[in-house]
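Escalated from tier 1: flavin-adenine dinucleotide holo job.
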Amino acid sequence: MTDIRTLETDVVVVGAGPAGSSAAAWLARQGRSVILADAETFPRDKACGDGLTPRAIAELTRLGLGDFLAGRARNQGLRAAGFGQVLHLPWPGGSLPNYGGAAPRLVLDAAIREVALAAGATAVEAARAVDVEREDGRVTAVIFEHEGARLRVRANTVIVADGARSQLGRVLGREWHRDTAYGVAARGYIDSERSADPWISSHLELRGRDNEILSGYGWIFPLADGTVNIGVGTLATSKRPADINLRQLMDFYADNQRDEWKLSGAVQKPWSALLPMGGAVSNVAGPNWLLIGDAAGCVNPLNGEGIDYGLETGRLAAEYLADRPSDFTNAWPDILREHYGLAFSAARRIAGILTSPELLRLAGPVGMRSRWLMTIALRVMGNLVTEEDTDALARVWRTVGRASIALDHRKPFS
Ligand SMILES: Cc1cc2nc3c(=O)[nH]c(=O)nc-3n(C[C@H](O)[C@H](O)[C@H](O)COP(=O)(O)OP(=O)(O)OC[C@H]3O[C@@H](n4cnc5c(N)ncnc54)[C@H](O)[C@@H]3O)c2cc1C
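Tier 2 regenerated the structure:
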């Protein structure tokens, strides 16, 4: 392939998912020249449960997407079912909104990207980043495959937001450690008469066709448009890989939920994917480049949510870059550790234990019998302990995190 053209910009953001679009929006609002490039053409779909935690709602509202959210599904908490119990656990509120939401990624991601473009970022679509050019260790340009030719984007700063597999991150030396728990999940859409249900539902006792218990959970997230997002997810490590046909399991799960959720027809648009979790990624920054969102392994190890982390790390990157730092290599992983290190360390340790179905069989019924324990689990699993929170649970969770990170042989983001 020959070069067809070269573009010049201050910042190039690779990947226009929630992380990349958030970073591009906040940087463009600072008045910086930003190119926001993506391998796909928008609107584009993405394997996801479409669930928005209160933390994601807060971040979307901050971006100015309040009106968008007003027209979408809204939920008041989690209905957790399993081991003979059903618990309704309201979102705790406090420093975050007391409601969550849900929006298909096809429309959500397009809306966030529009915010970035409205702020002044320039879009380049159907451009897959494949390589970089360097000078004295710094990246001077990102090379894209674009419309059958090569496109060079010269930039002072490169933000890598290209998702779980992070093709460009790998070029830059990113390493994903699968000995730490990661997620394997599948989602689909199905018609439901309960599409306006005000609770998102998780089934914590996930069983296979032989009634065997599996270390994972099933979810149904109502979308208030006649459909629900349905899915199954499990945790795995390189020692305990997930040996499950997820799409078959999702169909089986849907069949089990048909009567209760008044489901009709087949599961549509099935899509499965892997999720790096808990910051189990090394080399998240270099002199003038940094990784955000899934590319940096910013996904909650206990429930697989990553939209809020994507949005937050996009904003944090923009705030960090506002001071025009000269070398990001150590500073960016330090910032990520400061915000997420304690919680990720503790959560991925617990997630590693949960990869054992035997343990789940013992712990599940005990946990589900206690509303108190499940309320705690919801707050921790939902990433709803904020840095401002000073209540007893927040303090205990941080203490657990400190103990866990002290024991880590490889700390998050290192
Ligand atoms: C089955 C499943 C269910 C999930 N459910 C939830 C949920 O309910 N709630 C939640 O909060 N999170 C959920 N997650 C996690 C969530 O989807 C991710 O954490 C989130 O999408 C991360 O955003 P991102 O911007 O980092 O990456 P992405 O959303 O993956 O965006 C990356 C972008 O980069 C582009 N790209 C990739 N490679 C290149 C390249 N080489 N060049 C240019 N562009 C490139 C892609 O086209 C894409 O647009 C789920 C994940 C899975 C797999």
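The mean pLDDT is 93.
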